Amino acid sequence: MNRPCVCRRAELHADETLCPRCRAATAGRLRRLPLLYRLLQHELQPSAGGPSYGRVRLVEAPLPVAGDVLALRGPGGIVGVLEDWWGAMQASRSGSAPVIAGTYEDRASAAAGRLAFHLDYIVTWEQAGQFATEIRQLDEQALAIVCPADTLERGTRLGPCPAADPDGAVCGAVLRHYRSSSAVTCPWCEVVYPPSSWALLKAWMDHDREEDQEDAELLAG
Hints:
Helix 1 (20-44) packs parallel to helix 6 (128-146) and helix 3 (78-93) crosses helix 4 (104-117). This protein has 221 residues and is mostly helical. It has helices at residues 20-44, 67-73, 78-93, 104-117, 119-122, 128-146, 198-220; strands at residues 3-4, 11-12, 52-53, 56-57, 156-160, 174-177, 184-185, 192-193. Strand 3 (52-53) and strand 4 form a beta hairpin.
């Protein structure tokens, strides 16, 4: 007899524990959770002084620590849930315990990576439905803080991120501004551009566009 999947949108057949849609969504959430863990740091420990990048020092106003962010970044949050499932999965498969080492950020990446690697086994596991549900809930909690519902728009495209690493390599990721955000955050290198830096940021982008146009004209000529 068929039974509903945890998503309630599909029916499971025979020995299925997750529908294909839930399996794909779970894989995506496991890839995203380590990134969300890192991004939550900006919400947990905002700094009055940012790092220097090129010609401007980025400065953020201090904000109070949020309890929900602290819970997700703490041992019982993202790291704890991922490692609990990693341990349960390994125990059910081989009886061995996972090797836990490194910083919390390292541990989140390691646990999510191992769970994603063994997803073929997990979807045959009797606890697959509960696993997928908890991973979804964890992902939704973190995503609601990092990307609130009113910022899930595409945002206004500003241009490439001009931040450079110590070796001088420019990031170049596309920067976007969202209506509910008071700052612009690079989705790749995570550099934060507060409003006080936007005039200089625009000048950089205008200069880049002028150089690109000059290069195009030279090539055309």
